[in-house]
Amino acid sequence: MKIVGITNCPAGIAHTYMVAEAIEQKCKQLGYQVHIETQGASGVENRLTDQQIAAADYVILALGKGISDEDRIRFDGKKVVELPVSEALKHVDTLFDDIENQATVLHASKVKLGNNQKAVKEGIMSYLMAGVSAALPFVIGGGLLVAVGSMMVQFGMANTAMAKGVTPSLAWVVTSIGNLGFTFMIPIMGAYIANAIGDKPAFAPAFLVTFLANNTDLLGTKSGAGFLGAVIIGLSIGYFVKYFKKVKLGKALQPLLGSMLIPFITLLIFGLLTYYLLGPAMSWIMSGLLAFLNAIPTSMKIVTGFIIGAMLAFDMGGPVNKTAWFFAFSLLSSHVYNWYGIVGVVTLLPPMAAAIATWLRPNMFTKQERNSSISAFIVGATVATEPAIPYALAAPIPMIAANTLAGGIAGALSILFNIERIAPGIGLFDPLIGLEKPWFLFYVTVAIGLALNVLFIIVFKSAWLKREAKKTQTQ
Length: 475
Fold this sequence. Notes:
Mean pLDDT: 86
Shape: globular
Number of domains: 3
Largest sheet: 6 strands, mixed
Radius of gyration: 24 Å
Strand order of the largest sheet: 3-2-1-4-5-6
Structural class: alpha/beta
Distance between the termini: 39 Å
Order of helices and strands: EHEEHEHEHHEHHHHHHHHHHHHHHEEH
């Protein structure tokens, strides 16, 4: 049997490659020929050729952010099994058991889901994740440059701003370039949300209108629309364009619909609507939200930090994790960094704790888990929580309970110590490049969270293994 497939996820880092490797290994065990294309943070890798697709018996689509219309056309008429990338690792062992009944024929105009009905090709969350995935490089690159500029100043370099007759300093220029990433991350997010729904004709209007909604000088507001503007404008323009494209104008004018009429009319309508209504309204809401977050009593912030931390650790890159991550990430454009500080702490814990637990109590883990421990520790240290998934699948109750409780405590400590993270980075080493501060309290919180996580894993899994052993004996 010949299998081809595509894997992708919103961040394009861990799930994309882990699932591809898992599918490849399973196919090799079964003696199948396999070629998997990964659509990750580095772009498309191992791109499938037309010949490979044509020869394939089945196509596996493990998706976290959907596929483009062009990709649909590539697989038109093929037997396809589609499932969320977050579920793929759980089902890879049984994926090929009844593949004939799971698969459905894909048509370029519309993806038909398989019999499991769990696959999600379209939906609000997938559109939002498409926007987040596009915004990540902007905030990562911009955040790193801002950190570099800050470090240059700390090392004694001048921080002279541009002014008439004054040459700006290098540190100021580097920081200013970095700030462009934060300026454009929100318009890019809105543009790609719209693009995921309405395709290319929606991109430019959504980008320009979202930029307008966040330009306080143009709107005359105290605050920009922030991530809320990106979400509302992106979804609104996306759906507007999606249905606008169905208008029939005749052979003479139809070619102009996507290239000229849709962008022009959409920009005109939503530009005016945003200037006079949406922009000021969303600015008012964002100002209220930020005021509310600042006004929360410290005790309630700690409780909220516990909840956010527990959510981040609960399903290790799944929908609960993504919801908490999206909340924290979306506040970066408003220069609120302490909620994203929780992300920098908690996402390190589950994989690193699982690895350390295998070293301390190797008899509690399988040979495969022990062999994967070094990789899980290293990848986990760079803020990819997904390497903890195989450990959780092997013993879900104790591992998830340990991760969630430790993550919640670490999240509460992160808020208590006001740990701030200005952009995604390289995890454990973020303080070294200026992305996370205060550095000492960051490492203290990680150390406490890690120690608790390891302790909980050992205690909970030990009890769970004893209980499982008793069940086996009684049977």
